From TrEMBL:
PANTHER family, alphabetized: PERIPLASMIC SIGNAL SENSOR AND SIGMA FACTOR ACTIVATOR FECR-RELATED (PTHR30273), PROTEIN FECR (PTHR30273:SF2)
Domain FecR protein: 123-211
Organism (species): Fulvivirga lutea
The name this protein goes by in its record: FecR domain-containing protein
Keywords: Membrane, Transmembrane, Transmembrane helix
Domain Protein FecR C-terminal: 256-323
Membrane keyword on record: yes
Family annotation (InterPro entries): FecR, FecR_C, Ferrdict_sens_TM
Stretches that traverse the bilayer: 92-113
Gene Ontology MF terms in the entry: sigma factor antagonist activity
Extent of the signal sequence: none
Length: 328
């Protein structure tokens, strides 16, 4: 095993077992962003580890594991080195070796289990609604994705989310609905709620029912009721608070309500709903407030109302819109 592979495999081992530091998680995230192949390698490791933990049932397969494993390992050959301190690296070499031994025995199972049974729904520039096998409804925001196995709805209701989605979960007390979003895990029996995940945090806002938000790498857990929100930061901080954002799911409903809302916050909401690029000049006063309701209106109409109400001056260059003056 080369020194470069040692570095990357040690860090991957620490991340997927929940033993990494914040800096190590960021280092692996940066490595994954360098190429689609790097991300695929990390995803493969993570799924293989999940299989060995007993999250899936697998058949007996008479396959040449060694040759298949070497084919998979060759993907890591071009990986770049991620620097890490020498402290405890020897111990983590042992951990990485142990996990890789598990991977070697389970890789071929992954290849045959997931090649046909992993179901992925992914959006591009627009939101999309999906009905899951258990009759739950998921509305994916733009540039988001969910994935689950063909066993979803029968023996499991585990799903992975990247991006943002609103869930309306069909109640099933015997089979909890579990969402993995980064390091966060959201567990429900039947409810409706919004989940938004970014590189810095995962946020949950509850509309109906009860939701449990927990960290997959620690024992931290909070329970959220109607009107509650919870956030798990990338540093592992888990907080609970009352949701005061009336437009938290406007991207889904198209209904935007401003009640004495600051112009800055209003523009943030509009950018999220319309995927627009609107900015405010530093010369515009921070005291401007907006009181208005928009129900699935086009962005041009919304801007006309705001321009008239607040006496705004707007300059547009291509898709970029800037508010340069305001009469408020």
């Amino acid at each position: 095993m080369s020194e470069d592979k040692n570095h990357i495999e040690i860090l991957i081992a620490k991340v997927i077992t929940g033993q990494s530091t914040y800096d190590e998680r960021i280092a692996v995230e940066d490595w994954c962003k360098e190429s689609a192949e790097n991300q695929q390698v990390f995803d493969h490791y993570k799924k293989l580890y999940a299989i060995d933990k007993g999250h899936f049932t697998v058949p007996d397969l008479a396959i040449d594991v060694d040759s298949e494993w070497e084919l998979f390992r060759s993907k890591v050959s071009g990986a770049k080195t991620i620097e890490m301190t020498p402290k405890s690296s020897a111990n983590w070499l042992k951990v990485a070796a142990a996990i890789l031994l598990i991977f070697a025995s389970t890789f071929i199972i992954y290849k045959y289990l997931f090649s046909d049974s992993l179901i992925i729904h992914q959006t591009a520039d627009a939101k999309q609604e999906y009905v899951l096998p258990d009759k739950s409804i998921v509305t994916l925001n733009a540039n988001s994705s969910i994935s689950y196995t063909s066993e979803f709805g029968s023996t499991t209701r585990a799903i992975e989310l990247k991006g943002e989605a609103f869930f309306e979960v069909e109640r099933n007390e015997k089979l909890p609905f579990i969402i993995s979003a980064g390091d966060a895990r959201v567990t429900v029996l039947g409810t409706s709620f919004n989940v938004s995940t970014t590189s810095s945090a995962t946020e949950v806002v509850v509309s109906t029912g009860l939701v449990a938000l927990s960290s997959q790498s620690t024992d931290k857990k909070i329970e959220l009721g109607v009107g509650d929100a919870g956030k798990l930061s990338s540093q592992g901080e888990l907080i609970q608070y009352k949701n005061e954002d009336t437009n938290f799911n406007s991207w889904k409903t198209g209904l935007i309500v401003f009640e004495s809302t600051s112009l800055k916050k209003a523009i943030e909401d509009l950018n999220k709903v319309y995927k627009s690029s609107i900015s405010i000049s530093d010369e515009v006063t921070a005291t401007c407030e907006v009181t208005a309701t928009f129900d699935n209106q086009p962005l041009d109409s919304v801007l006309k109302v705001l321009t008239s109400t607040l006496d705004l001056t707007i300059e547009q260059t291509g898709q970029d819109i800037e508010i340069t003056k305001a009469g408020c």
